[in-house]
Batch of 4 targets.
Target 1
Amino acid sequence: MSQYQRLLLIINPALRHSTVINHAAAVAMASGATLHIAALVKSLDVLSLLEEGDREQARAQYLQDHRDWLEGQAIVMRGNGLEVTSGVAWSEDMQQEILDFVSEMQPDLLIKQVQHESLLRRAFFTPLDWGLLRHCPVPVYLVGGAGHALPRKIVAAVDAASTEAENDRLNDRIIEQATALAIQCNAELHLLYAYDVSQEDLEELGDGLRVSALTKALRKELEASYIAWANRYGVPAECRHFVVGHPVAALSEFAEEQQVDVIVMGRVQYHGLDKLLGSTTEHILYQVPCSVLAV
């Protein structure tokens, strides 16, 4: 049985040329899942200039136009054998209403297009996608870049540095999700760890040893941990990647060079300053030329 039985796709119906519907339909077709498309529309300030009666009529007509368009998309997908439902509604609080949809529908996967936000805006407001990564109780598939609608190359990005049980469980979930998605989509599965030794790591291992010796020792230890993960899941040698560099930069470079379609990563709950700055997965959204599946 497929790991996906119910998919929830959130779209902005004003972006009718977006490829996110094609991506969701491809995953639904490959997994045999049902698909519900929720089109959420932000209120239009310009409508407030109209008289009340005209305003309500304009609102109703605006939504109906989107319903007609979305139903046309659904009809095409049903013709291809998919079980699809759809709905269009106004949204005053996008994040909360998406979470309400998730709570009500209990989907196996939430799909949404990446919504790019400027660095300045991110400094003052938590982006919608970041909010979903932090609070959504189900895996989040954020579609970005111009990759294949049905993934052909999937990368599971693990963290081999931490030996805590919670990190081990998260690595397991990452690899399991990536493996299941690769099987359903008949895609290549790769396992990657971005190795980045900070000054703090070196100071902890210090005791007067040369930095070069410490770096080699730590790298050997981390590589052994990474190989153990790869062996546990039977990842072939040609699909194992132990790369050097900061995770965001290393993953971005790898995804571009290898034409990756989806990176599967873990979500971590942050507090205080870490929450303000954002996690690796959150920053990856604005760097990689592909989609991100966060578990």
Note: Residues 269-278 have pLDDT under 50 and may be disordered.
Target 2
Amino acid sequence: MRAVDVIAEEVRDAEPRDIPKRLCGVVVELLPVVGASVALHNDGMPVRLSASSEHASYLAEIQATLGDGPCLYAARTGTPVLASDLTSGEDADRWPFFAQQATAAGVRAVYSLPLGNDSVCVGTLDLYRDTPGELTPRELRTALLVAGVMTVALMALPRGEENGSRGAEPWLSGLAAEHDEVYQAVGMIMAQLGVGAEEALARLRAHAFARNRMAVDVAHDVVAHRTRFERD
């Protein structure tokens, strides 16, 4: 069956909010990858929307916590980033901290595809492979096809009362709380340290990395007043 038929069959009759997770699953079936995740990007902080597995979710959170990795570069440039070997060579040198964490988690290659159009990137589709290697031209076309469908699906998610959809579930409901909590924590760190937003986010990430935790978990503790940042 052609890739387009597999994708169409998987998303047929699906609710718009269920499509990202289904597409993460179908791309794992179609390509030589062991996991996939989709993240939205805002002000440099990826926020995981869905993943094919807990393992893929963990890998997405690594990039968000480190502020380092193929997905952040793909979001900044709006172009695919194909890191085909994180064990050695230029890919490992380009993202040393992420490469170390990813290989420790059993991943040897990551392919990050931007979601959006020529003028704006709203997120990335990230594919994880347990062996080094490049995607063939046909495999890359399939990955880009899934990324295109993913972009359309994200734009189709209900946006509450916008466009007359009164009573609909808010756009990205369930994710927004986590996203807002990170930025609420950044605001609290800004006030505690007297620094700007960029440095506050860097401090949040550094605190998480030093304690082998995820940035979203530290943010939760900051908002709950269990963690406080002190001026040097």
Note: The mean pLDDT is 85.
Target 3
Amino acid sequence: MTARHHHFLSQCYLRGFTNNGSKKSNLRVINVADGTHFETKPRNVGGVRDFNRIDAEGVDQNILEKSLADFEGEAAKAIKGLIEGEDFSGERREIVLYLIGLLAVRSPHRREQMRAFQAQIIERMMDLSLDSKERWDSQIEGLRASGGKVLDNVTYEDVKRFHESKAYTIQVARENHIRIEMSLLQTIVPLLSARNWSLIRSDDESGSFITTDRPVLLEFEEPENVPAFYRRSPGFGLDKTYLYFPVSKHVSLLGQFSEHQAEMGATRTIVASLNSAMLGSVYRQVYAPGLDFPVMSADGKVISGKALVK
């Protein structure tokens, strides 16, 4: 039987934020909207039905899901190597950067943003098309002349009334989302590779890194020097930006164009600052091995993640 529950957050990735990294180990999941929390296994979060399914004639519906499963086997080995103290270089580096790219461009939230954007364009095109009966009739005649299907019993007034009622939803085919995502991935990965990456390690004393359902954080290094309109949309190839990615509960990566590659240990304050940055970009859920991870309070003090929950 074919599995229909597809993960946009890799299970091999989420296992790094469980208590001991095994398939049977649990995550602590925090819902940021209301502060509720629960424990569960990685397979139960970060997934939606048919997220990777491709419905096209002559194509295996599960070809993408199978390909991603093969890749995630390699990603699991690369993550395990970093956790065990190996350096961030060679094939391991390439695999992890590809994983970062996948997580950056693929999520239900990003698909909804893209759908809403495309829907706005279509709405505006319909506004222009229905601006007058003469314009509408001209377009219909053009469609008819090119062999397009036209319903003669639907009038301009019918279409305009329906359009203005907004009693419909504009959907975008899943396959179109996948096509765009794979195209973006090919653009983003070389830009990730061009950055200099620092490997940051924590321990039990300095505390655990957390991750979220938006695990790739891209920000300006000096947002106060960027016009307010552009602050929330830095580009992957833009200078003076940093990309932060928590690899596991005790390993994270920081990519910049301005710094050389390094490996460093993190104090509890650094872990708290990085965790707080992640909290600022979350969609719906936070994932951690427990609730006692460090974060920064509003007045700049290091506090426990327990303060975030009910």
Note: The helical segments are 11-14, 63-83, 90-105, 108-129, 133-145, 156-165, 174-193, 268-279.
Target 4
Amino acid sequence: MWWPHSRDLLTQLPKMLAALPSAWGDITGVTVDAAAWSAAPGRMFVANQVVRLHKAPASPHAPDRVVLLSPGLGRWDLQVIPPDATEEAAALLTAAALDDRRPGAGAEARPPSPTTAAGPRGRVRPAGRGTRAPRW
């Protein structure tokens, strides 16, 4: 999960990418909901690499999600907690996301991939590893 401070993609995305675990590799593609984020170019330079930005309509199955692509390593889908969400709303979204990950909770099989849990506002961290990303 990701809880950005604003919908300014040019400001928030580099901070989020910098906070990801190194095991996720170099993120070269990011897909976001076109209606949810501020205007952004088709690509941006982040941490000495080009990241292609794709804006797509929100999926009814995952309304507020950011998809990260890393060549050779895979795809990671992060649920976005809206920047203006209260602590209580963020806790409910997190609980629902964690509940959806339980075996047998959904009809779809989920591919193996790193899972994430929400930490304090503005943090992205892998679930169950106890690591914390720096505050930004």
Note: Residues 87-100 form the longest helix (14 residues).
